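quick one before i forget lol
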Amino acid sequence: MAFPKIGDAVLLFSTRCQDARRLARKFVSGICLIAAPALGPTSLALAKEKPDPSPPVAGAAISPLDARTIRLTGTIKDGDAARLRAMLTRAGAAASPTVELASPGGDLMEGYRIGGLLKEFAATTVVRKGDTCLSACALAFLGGSARNAAGANRCNLEIGGKVGFHNFWLNPNGAGSATGGARDGTSADPVMSRLQGFNEATGGAARLLRYAAEVGMQPNFVGSLMGRSADELQYIETVGQFLSLGICPIGLAPTTLSRAQEASNVCNHSTGWLDAAAPLQANEIPARKAKRRLLERVQSNMQSARSQPARTKGGLAEQFESGSIMRVGGETDRLYEDLQAAGVALPDIVGPTFEVGRQRGRTFEVVCYVSLSTEDPDRFDVVVQTARGGLAQPAIAPVEGCRRLFRLDRDAVINRGA
């Protein structure tokens, strides 16, 4: 069958456009354009429903798993977002609906629509162990990455599931046909038809950038995606990828790192890995001395700046400046809590506490103070040292619900995709 011209095609995020490679190199890494008849039906069905052996019919099957959960499987096609909206609207009484995704991809624009819909309904998206979500499905999946007001994450990948992205290309079969005629405003001239396709491709890339901004994809990930070969899938595998896309892992195994290594990783994540070439060193502070060490740091900075802790009152500030109050154990705890309440950046002491920094010649330059719980991997606290020697809250905070990722190196592979 003869394919229609570019203007008759639908935008599609596809992993099987093998005949497009040569033109992709000649023009641009753009949007893959495939004729609508090539698309299979989408199935939005029950979680444990067996595949229907009957011939596909127009439209998608969509059924709830329960009052709050919908499962979407199969190739994404035009109209699926509208059907999903209808189901989410009918289930409107349920707070925070969950949508499970398992799809090889499909219509790119419909993937954007589904992602926007998931964001609109504040849906939690999940890819389960053993499921695969690629291309347009992966973009739709990120609709759950926009955080709610409480900061909790709604985008989840179960360890053993696969989420994969790839770059775009231009399909030459959509660039005109010897037997086909121009329709729907597509030029019959082969050159003009290709120029029209080029414009549609670049327009699709611009739409990706807008969608990336809407769901919070970091520019470096988008740049990495656009710089890859169109037939090379980029799976979500490393800690850094999970964090950059706002995805939380489900079923992550406990870390086997030492507490010192975990403290160094927390510090690196909190400071944006500003000097990754110079390794951090974490020195544990004895438990009985942790608060006093931190108070001494605040005191030293206060004296050098000739200032007083914010909102401390009366003799307390004077006693703190003189250091006399820190020689009494119970008073140290009270002073520590008082300064925290006054807004001074001091970490909660929840377990082993580390002074983390770098050795510069004979000088140890402190970067962070990190306190780690030994019972809850999501519980830790960190403050960073400023250029003037004071303490401050870190500019980069972990995502609630998967804070434990900060304990791991950003390049650590935690979910093998390929």
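fyi DSSP finds eleven helices and 18 strands in the chain.
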